[in-house]
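Sample log: Spindle pole body component.
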Amino acid sequence: MNSVQSPYSNTGSSSLNYVATPIVVHLTDTPHTLLDPSLAPAPTGLERPIKSYPLSDIPDLHIQQALIIKDLLYVLLGHEGYYVRYSEKYSPGSPTSRLLGPDFKIAKHLDVSLKDITKRVARCGKMYVSIYSFLEQYDKAIFGQVNQLLCAQIRGFITTVYHPLVVQLETEFNTRDSSLNLIRVDQVCQEAITVPLSHLYEIVTIIHQENRNRHQKRAGNAHGDLLASIKHDLRDLNSLELLSDTTPSLYITGQATLRIVQECLDANQADETSFRFLTGLFDQVSSSYLHMLNQWLVHGTVNDPYDEFLVKEVDPPANITIRNSDRYWESKFVIRKEQDQAGNDIMMKQFVSKAVQLKILRVGRYLNVIKCCGIDVCSLDGGSTSNIHIGSIYSSNASSFIMGAISSTDFDIRLENAYRRANRLIFKLYSQGYDLLSLLQFMKHFWFLQQQKAVQYDEFCQSSLAELKKPGNMASLSRLTRHFQRYVTGVLEIPDSIQSVLLQLTRLSMTADNYYTHLLDILAIKPTFAEMDYLGHAGDSFRFLLKKSLEFKSHRVDDSMISNSPSGGDSSGADKYAIFNMNVEVTLPFPLNLLFKEDMLASFSLISRNLLIAKFLVHFHGTVWREMNRGVWRYPKLSGPVKKWILRMRVFHSMLQSFLVEYSYYLNHDVMEPEWAQMNRKVIKACVYAENYQETVPLDGFSFNSTSGQDVDFHNTVQEIQSCLNAIMKGSFLVNKELIELLQNILMIILQFDQFALSLSKTIIHLDATLFEKHYGQDGSRSFEPVKNKERVQKMNVYLNRLWELWNDQMGNYLEGLEYLGTLENDCFLKLFHRLKVVQ
């Protein structure tokens, strides 16, 4: 009787006894010893293999089969046997080699009929070594909860399925008169372990290979990934709201692991057994990620100790102030994003869509804003708070927005429910807690200079006319502030209201730059940011068409073109008036600065300054008209040339007055009122829907019924306000360089004329002997000079003619531009064009 020792036994306690006839094979190993102490650790490869008994000397196939089955029991636990051994390429001491699993070579003299079956069973041993080695290397906290859950599933498969199967085969093989054969072993393996084992092997090897690739990837690529992410966001969303952290992780964690499992799941949808196993695996492995997702969607918290979750909480930038604190929320929570070598985002398919990412990000942001206002988000679904009554939202259907599984078919529906809930909560915070509708009305009255009730912007301009005519660096800011307080902020203030708080945060200031210089500086910025924000997507093409198709012959009206007035007074420096430097600033507190962001306040300010300049010009020009219709201007005995000159001055003044009246009317009634009313209607509808009112709401003389079919979206509401401001900016010609320059030239001509007219009273006295004698008869140092008076009248006519020619030139260019742009871009321009065409 021959004895064959186990390849890993130095005691000879394991032997195989056989006789020729009858064929009975007995294994004398103690059952289950291969599984002790735990998980049958793989060999180190340091043992010296014992030479096997030659199969060529064993002609009986039954004996060969028994020997191979004996070896395969070792192989299934990761060891090599006598006749099934590791290939030379396998290095048991290498973690990578062990994780990829050993290839086995089979004794060449084994019967061909047994060799194919042996190879299939031996592959299970290879995959077992791989997944067990994965447990050894990856079941650590640094690889994150998702990978630990994957390891737990692998361990559960090994201990509850794989090892019991090996024990079953060993027990059956050790049974006397056993009929176990290779076909039976192969069949059992194929039915019980091959499918899950092959999928686990595929997953762990992909994870390991990806980790190796990450270690080889240069860190410098992170900057390129960030730039690529920004470009994609601008292309897909035309927004930078979806900020991303593209810092590559050292290891495959979280979404990357789930993405790998999901890809395997998608690739095996046609195989019912594989699909069922992988679906269960994905749900189990993603359970921690699902918990993090629910925590974010329900409470707005990021509980992510191993940096695996889609949303990452980062430290805010150091340059955040109360003026731009909206950027704090845009940068506090960002999307964690990694990309493969092809530049594709490594994400589960449920999160690949930019729209989905934005929704998830906004839900948590809104909830965090509410929490920062001192409101417990958990209490909102069940009742009201003590400070701000928000009410019950989804209180009877709270589970409608809690995710049951990432792979569930209702994932998108539940995410949409969570998004609706967060939107309604944030909307109620503003509509009820901060009285959004009253706040909008206040913003309209304050910024758009609405003459409402006791708000007296006209009185402010009239009382401050002297200061506003001074150079910006010489005007008394304290006096202007007192006038503004008396006629504007003082009468708008309502005790114990949010308006009162805002007015206390309002201040007047003098900017260093002229208003129009500031506008032109904004438009000089590359169109990617400045003009795309104001003009929209067609900013570049619009400017290109305008420059190619419309040849403006505009030029700046400066002091060299209009000499000092014939009266001797200086008519230069009109563009240095304080009105062009005065600015009204409002610093909004949290959370109002999230609704009215920094760029919105900048738009409000630009629109308001433009209106204030127009209102100032109307008052100043009216003062000039009153001056031209009293005193020496109405003296009946002036000479014919002087009377004719005065008549021409009044005609020209009326022409300028008509322009100011039509321009002011256009800004207020053709641009602001329609745009604001349209936006206000949408905001009111959103407020009504958020509060679940079902009643008629009056608005500007008409009413509408709220509709429950339209849901509320806070982001869209903010965008409606911004779009309204953009439309007003565009309709007010504040986004077009050429029209701004032309308008500035026109206004400078008006101011030059007004300065000229106000400086002529003394000159008119010198032109008439009676008036001269009345005013200067007692002054012996002066004498009436008829010859010099003719020169004075001639200079006055020359100056007026020059102003008139410049006016016609600039107005012609302005009307040409209005007509062209009105046809091409904005038909609202045509309204002003037709009115000015009539009056001019």
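Observation: The chain has a mean pLDDT of 76.
Observation: The chain has three domains: 61-219, 241-380+400-433, 438-554+572-694+711-839.
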